[in-house]
Each structure stands twice: as C-alpha cells, then as structure tokens.
Write a structure and sequence with these properties.
40% of the residues lie in helices and 23% in strands. Strands 2-1-6-5-4-3 form a six-stranded antiparallel beta sheet, sandwiched between helices. α7 runs antiparallel to α8, α9 runs parallel beside α10 and α10 runs antiparallel to α12. It contains 13 helices and 14 strands. The longest helix is centred in the middle third of the chain and has 36 residues.
C-alpha cells in the first residue's frame, strides 16, 4: 500500500495524512528533508528558515540561527580567512542586483571556526519591483574541490611532460617534409603530412589541457590594465577578415548601430566609425585570445553567409558579440557548451577538428574580469556569442592609467544583456 493511500481506522485519517493536508507542514517536511542547506531571509537580512542540513554544514543550530542577521551566521571569507567586503557577499549581490546567483563558490567560516568551501545558488524573492527577501541553497563541496584539484594537478603535470616529446616529434616530421633536407616519394610525403597534422593536433590538445588546468586553479598568466575595447576590436576586425574572406564569407563589423561590410579590399580608414570610448580593466592579450577563438569558431562552422563582430555598451557594461549564419546549436546542447570536452554532436563537429576546451577556457578568462560569456542560437539560422565586461567611465580609466596598478581592480558586472 502506498504512503499516500488512505487507510481507514475508526473512520479517521492517519496522523501522517492529516499532517500532509496542511500546506505549511508539507513545505516544512520538504525543506527539512533536503540534503542541501536551505535558508530564507527577509529584506532586512534576518533569517526565517534554516533547515537541518544548513545547521549541519554551518555548525549553527536552527533555533540559534533563526532571528539572526545572515551575516552573523553565513560568514564568507577570502583565501586569507578574512571576511569579504559586504558588496562581494553572494547574498548581498542578489539584494543589490535582483538577479539570481548560481553555482557561486565561496568559503564559509563555520561556528566552530572551520573553513569549508560551499557552492551557493541564491534567488531573489521579488516584492513588486524590489527584492523582498532571498532564498539560498548551498552544499559543502570541499571534498569535491579537493578531487578536482588532484585531477587538475595530474592533467597539468601530464600535459607539461608530454608537450616536450610531442614537440620533438613534430619538429622531426617538419624536417622530413622539408625538401631542402630530405627527398621522399609522394606516397611517403602523404603519410608524413598526416602524421605531422595529427601531431600538431595532439600538441594543441596538451596546450589546451595545461591552459584549462591553470584557468581552474587561478594560475593563468594575467596582466590586467585599462583597455579601450573599441580600439582592440577594430584592430581585430581588420586582421580577422582574411579568415572570413578566404572561406567566401562576408564579415560585418558593428559599432553600436553602425556597421561596415569588411572584405579584403576595404581599407582600415574605410571601416572607421565614430564611437564612444569603451574602457574595461583586463589583459588585452587574453581578451584578444577569447574574441579570436569565438571568431574562428564562427568561421569554421559557417559554410555560407556572413560572420559579424560587434561592440556596444551602456553605463555599466561593454558588450562584444560574435555572430554567424551557421547551422546553429540545439537548445539541449546550450547549457553544456562551456563545459570541458563538450562538443555538439552533428555532422559539422565530426568533420571539424577541435579539443573541446576552447569555450571552457574563454569563459574562465572572461570570469577573471568579473564578466559574463553566453550564447544565443537558433538551429538553422546561426549563433551569437556575447561577452559582457564591467565598463570604466572616462575619469576612472584616466586615473588608473596614471597610476601603477598593483592589484586587480574591484569591479562587478550585472551580466544584463544590452
């Protein structure tokens, strides 16, 4: 007999059935049964719900935590064990922006003084146009993080060690293919060319594995500075156009609402448009790496039509986009697109080589600068990748240019689409 089947005893419902009739009791049973920590706070920051899992993880009993300010219980600290600035607390960010925070990792100082790594998902409870409260779900991912770190260390070490012999093999194959060094018959040359191509692909895979491991644990080389992103994208448009025209594609460079079709005959002066100054704080080499990767992907997967590189902005964000008229991405693949080794399974990806790490690395780089990278796509019509970065106003940018920057700038982005 099922749990919710009725069983008559002197014409009275069972105690459980009676309890389940109460919506409040149902909610309480569900929240208390969840293995993740769940807590609810009001607009003043006071805790009203604190389930048993939250108590177990944080060290605070539910009856102790309820009625307290969340900052007294959910103490988020940095790598030095010092409390984060209020504006950096994931819950505070939701109160300020009204936007949910998902998959945020942060270190919690428990009641007993132990530091553990949590993964938060925080959602606003809207009261009209303002945030009337917040509900948060979190879990202890300390063990998971340790395992991820071990895997990353192994990948990093293995990739580093294997790059050297692969580079040597590639070098010897290149020498063998050099007509000034050796003489080989056409059939042997064909075999060597295939081996050389495969070795280059293997070398790129090891390089991407090494880069992805560094991106995950914060060891990625990074030299942020004030960058006028409009100038950077304009120069990139001029250099990237050759990849598009070589494949017979049109390239469009868009600044705000202004655009120009770029082909091999258009001069740099011919494509200039009046535009605002889009200042951001980032490593220009890393930004160039991301935009180039997105553009190369657009060209690779577009057989006919056009690719577009564009930039626009508002008072808070600068947005760069790369669009194509390719096959598009199925909606079920989009949530997984920025995961390591994930590739859309279709005829195009099966014939076009790749490591499956490029988009993962791009996303990690953009997140270094408090930015956001995402994609919108329609199957059969094409895809558009968007990059949002926090915008610096002119005065702030000029002040930073005149100052030696010794630490990363504290900036934030709301990630809203422009």
């Amino acid at each position: 007999m099922g749990l919710f089947n009725r069983k008559k005893t002197d014409n009275n419902d069972s105690a459980l059935i009676s309890q389940l009739k109460s919506e409040q009791a149902k909610t309480s049973i569900i929240i208390n049964a969840i293995i993740d920590g769940v807590f609810l706070i009001d607009e003043k920051g006071v805790i009203h719900i604190f389930n048993p899992a939250a108590a177990r993880i944080s060290g605070w009993l539910s009856e102790e935590a309820i009625g307290l300010d969340y900052r007294s219980v959910i103490k988020i600290v940095d790598e030095k064990g010092e409390a984060l600035q209020p504006g950096m607390h994931p819950i505070n960010k939701v109160f300020k922006s009204g936007e949910p925070q998902t998959g945020v990792r942060a270190s919690l100082l428990t009641k007993t003084g132990t530091t553990i790594l949590l993964e938060f998902s925080v959602s606003p409870l809207m009261d009209g146009s303002k945030v009337g409260g917040v509900i948060a779900v979190f879990r202890d991912v300390s063990e998971k993080h340790t395992e991820e770190q071990r895997r990353a260390d192994f990948i990093s070490t293995a990739s580093h060690e294997m790059r050297t012999p692969v580079a040597a093999i590639e070098g010897y194959l290149a020498l063998a293919l050099n007509e000034n060094v050796s003489k080989i018959d056409p059939k042997a040359r064909s075999f060597l060319e295939k081996a050389h191509s495969s070795t280059q692909h293997l070398g790129q895979l090891f390089q991407d594995l090494l880069t992805s491991a560094k991106a995950e644990d914060g060891r990625l080389t990074n030299h942020p500075q004030v960058v006028e992103l409009g100038e950077l994208t304009e120069k990139l448009a001029d250099s990237l156009k050759f990849a598009a025209t070589k494949k017979g594609l049109k390239m469009e460079y868009v600044v705000g609402s202004q655009s120009a079709i770029i082909d091999a005959t258009v001069t740099q002066a011919g494509m200039k448009t009046l535009r605002p100054l889009y200042y951001v704080y980032a490593d220009p080499d890393r930004l160039q790496e991301v935009i180039t990767n997105l553009f190369d992907n657009a060209v690779k997967y577009t057989e006919s039509g056009a690719v577009r590189l564009g930039i626009t902005g508002n008072d808070h964000n600068v947005q760069v986009h790369v669009a194509d008229t390719g096959p598009g991405i199925p909606v079920e693949d989009i949530p997984h697109l920025f995961q390591k080794f994930y590739r859309v399974d279709n005829s195009a990806t099966r014939t076009i080589g790749g490591t499956g790490l490029g988009l993962f690395i791009c996303k990690k780089i953009i997140e270094l600068y408090q930015g956001k990278l995402w994609v919108e796509s329609v199957v059969g019509k094409g895809s558009t990748f968007y990059i949002n970065l926090p915008r610096l106003n002119n005065d702030r940018a000029e002040a930073l240019k005149a100052t030696t920057i010794t630490s990363p700038l504290d900036v934030s982005a709301n990630g809203a689409k422009l």
